[in-house]
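Let's sit down with a protein and look at its sequence and fold side by side. We need material for that, and I hope you will provide a protein of your own picking. Once you have written the record down, we can walk along the chain together.

***
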Amino acid sequence: MSKEWSVRIETTHNAGEERSLKIVDHVMQQLRGYAAVGSGGPTSLGLQMSVTADSLESAFAKSIKTFTAAILKVGTPHQFRIVDVEVETAEHFETRLNEPDPELVGIAELSALLNVSRARASALAARRDFPAPYARLASGPVWMKANLSRWLAEWKRRPNVRREPGITRADANEALRVAAKPQA
């Protein structure tokens, strides 16, 4: 029984930026019967297309054959190299598209979440027991909020004791110990 499959194909090429855009347009025209969408850059071409096939293997083979035929019609097959292919049922693809994006948290959001200053949030994020960031951007690290939940639940907020000049760490620790004792 035939199913609809969604196929993502990623390629690299050496066609150059200006030529790449023309190639993407021509390939998309060749694949218009496959609900194809694509994007290209100076060294890459990526596309998503739909094929009908009896199995995952036949969907894979059909999509590669169809894509290769489109590239051959455009006339630049030697410049393209397929580097990744992902095949999934159209139903699974639709389900994934409808999933909400993960909520991302940067230092400013972490600061608000913990009700601490940005400097304190940065210091907490630098701890060894703090979850690794999802990504590091030019603006700083970001985490998926869901990945922080366990750490947030286990974090023990301690009162902020500022040390005055001349007060030792032992004095500050003693002040924390005394502050933590139950009042009689």
Q: What stands out?
A: The chain has two domains: 3-98, 104-180. The chain has a mean pLDDT of 85. The beta strands are 3-13, 37-40, 44-53, 80-89, 104-105, 135-137, 140-144. Residues 3-98 form a domain with the Alpha-Beta Plaits fold (CATH 3.30.70.270).
